[in-house]
Amino acid sequence: MIMKKGLILVTGGTGYIGSHTVVELQNSGYEVVIVDNLSNSNRDVLDGIERITGQRPAFVEADCTDMGAMRELFETYKGISGIINFAASKAVGESVQKPILYYRNNLNTLMNLLDLMGEYNVKGIVFSSSCTVYGEPDENPVTEAAPIKVATSPYGNTKQICEEIITDVINSGAPFKSIILRYFNPVGAHPSAEIGELPNGIPQNLIPFLTQTAIGIRKELSVFGDDYNTPDGSCIRDFINVVDLAKAHVIAIERMLEDKSEEKIETFNLGTGIGLSVKELISAFERATGVKVPHKIVGRRVGDIEKVWANPEYANNVLGWKAEVSIEDTLRSAWAWQCRLRERGIM
Ligand code: NAD
Ligand code: WQD
């Protein structure tokens, strides 16, 4: 019998980044229990995970803000050794319209987990943060030491507050560790095209809008602004492959569970270190897939950051993690996923 390395609770595990992380955890020998309220995902994702790994993770449909349901989960699944907390509401625009929903969901989810961790002897929690905490950075590439800027949306503010909550709880002497991961722009899908991003309604993010345009669901992609202070005038981002990103979570879990660091709380940027403009990304997609993307330049989108990309050296050196998948392969994976959704009649 193969000994499992430990039981990991993955909140939001049927979501985009969560599902890819569950695959990497299972492939690395961890046992997984997912909790998700399916507010932004569906059960079919479990089939995709099973087709890739040959294992179906345990699944609990529950809301992480419901303390009673979470306690029941911890009672049922004894011996959870680590948590990865993906569960959150994540649409920037919606957070401006419904701030209370965002504060309640994102903060209460985290606080319930932190409360239960002490009680159930969980060794560590990985938290999904975002480069949004840096706002418009003074310098690129951005290191972890860059100043945290005033948040421009309630969503962004929840990430800043959650980071502070974790810091305060750890500093109060909590008997567990935490690793905060600040993702840049996660994109792409699993190379098997069994799992990927499933946006609800009209996508707000670039890649899903682009692939939906390429397949004909949307008429045209709007490029939001070409008058920025960048070489081609369009915004610059650091697009990080979702499988690369998922692998960093496994390393982070291992680091806490095996006490590889003296630190009780650590924060890492997860990006490629390469800034790519929106126009460059569209060209890269067309080159990589041979598929044209009808697009036009329109005005700037309110609240957009001009340019931001990561200095990932801290994660490279300390975690031994590095983004490996090329942008071409990443874009091909996003396209294969979009085509798979079409084959299945989903989109
Ligand atoms: P996602 O919406 O695909 O996944 C989140 C999952 O959490 C969904 O399956 C949703 O149903 C679930 N969920 C939400 N609230 C819940 C609750 N109260 N109880 C149980 N389940 C709940 O999002 P994602 O892109 O996979 O993002 C995962 C995490 O990474 C989020 O915390 C997000 O803020 C963060 N993040 C995402 C990005 C990005 O661009 N995708 C960038 C930086 C950070
Ligand atoms: C990328 C670039 C757009 C759509 C958001 C959140 C951030 C993080 C990641 C969670 C921008 C341009 C987009 C389109 C376009 N999420 N664009 N046409 O804004 O960098 O980050 O997701 O933490 O917090 O703010 O990502 O994919 O929306 O945009 O021209 O139809 O693509 O203007 O320059 P963003 P995005």
Order of helices and strands: EHEHEHEHHEHEEHEEEHEEHEHH
Average pLDDT number: 97
Which word captures the global form? globular
Number of helices: 11
Structural class: alpha/beta
Unreliable residue stretches: none
What do these coordinates show?
The protein has 347 residues and is an alpha/beta fold. It has helices spanning 16-27, 44-53, 67-76, 92-97, 99-119, 154-171, 206-214, 242-257, 278-289, 313-319, 327-343; strands spanning 7-11, 31-36, 58-61, 80-85, 124-130, 177-183, 185-187, 221-224, 236-237, 239-241, 265-270, 276-277, 295-298. It has a seven-stranded parallel sheet with strand order 3-2-1-4-5-6-11, with helices on both faces. Helix 7 crosses helix 11 (327-343). The longest helix is centred in the first third of the chain and has 21 residues, at 99-119. Bound molecules: nicotinamide-adenine-dinucleotide and UDP-4-deoxy-4-formamido-beta-L-arabinopyranose. UDP-4-deoxy-4-formamido-beta-L-arabinopyranose binds at residues 90, 92, 130, 132, 185, 204-206, 209, 221-224, 235, 237, 278, 301, 304.
